[in-house]
Amino acid sequence: MNKSITFLLLFICTVSLGQPAVYTVANLHSHNDYEKPFPYWEAYNQGYGSIEADIFLKGDDLIIAHDTVQLKMGRTLDSFYLQPLQQCIVKNKGYPYADKASDLQLLIDIKTDSVATLNKLVEKLKAYPVITSCARVKIVITGNRPAMSAFTGYPSYIYFDGELYKEYTAKAIGKIEMLSDNFRRYSRWNGLDSIPLKDKNIIAALIAKAHQLHKKVRFWNAPDIINSWNVFMAMGVDYINTDHITGAATYLNQLQH
Fold it and tell me: Is residue 1 situated within a structural domain?
């Protein structure tokens, strides 16, 4: 069956579990956003709180791609993310969104050498003081990351996506914006019916651990349908990882009415 038809059927047929009213589109994370027909803008126009871009260091530039095939397209982080984000901040007089209370997280997934690629990113961001000085924007590094002992050596506007299963030093925790993990490390649940109680208890303990550290939580490689969104929201997952930009936004907006 066509994937879009399958998703539509799930969207229509899944029963809501009564998720917390506090969840909005700001709790959505646009996973692999650079693969979408309109990178950055589709998620931004929906009001997403977090947008993801994978980067490769190629020569003297940062290219957004997931593999070597996409790498050949030569799409730069500057043109697809940094320049549009700067444009939005300027337009909104120092804020990423017209709503001055709204935050925007740019999650940058490093695919090449952690130190060399991050150093190049820091160098490039020097040309974007509008972004780095914006209190409502967070630049968060995931994927290949330097050793936690090096976290504090990076500029104040650089944060890190920690790994939920790891233990971090007090200094490193200060530079960590959120804690993420591979959902499949803990469960094979496909998002349908109820999540197994054993799996749910393990995941609930991890979420509690993160929240005790005052860190937000995100799971990747997780089920991505309405039923799973409801379960994750009920469990307190802060960012709902999704590839369905419009569908997820539409659903969460409907919850507010």
Answer: no
Q: How far apart are CA 169 and CA 150, in angstroms?
A: 11
d(CA 104, CA 175): 17
Q: Is residue 169 part of a domain?
A: yes
Amino acid, res. 172: A
Which CATH number characterizes residue 198's domain?
3.20.20.190
- What does pTM read for this prediction? 0.90
State how far the Cα of 95 lies from the Cα of 101, in Å rounded to an integer: 9
| Distant-in-sequence contacts of 77-81, Cβ < 8 A, 24+ apart | 77/53, 77/108, 77/121, 77/124, 78/124, 80/34, 80/39, 80/40, 80/53, 81/39, 81/40, 81/51, 81/53, 81/106
The radius of gyration of the chain from alpha carbons, rounded to an integer in Å, stands at 18
Q: What is the b/e burial string over 165-185, where b = at least 16 CB atoms within 10 angstroms of the residue's CB?
A: eeebeeebbebbbbbbbebee
Count of domains for the chain: 1
Mean pLDDT by 10 residues, the chain (257 residues): 42 37 91 94 98 95 87 90 98 98 98 97 98 98 98 98 96 98 98 97 96 97 98 97 97 88
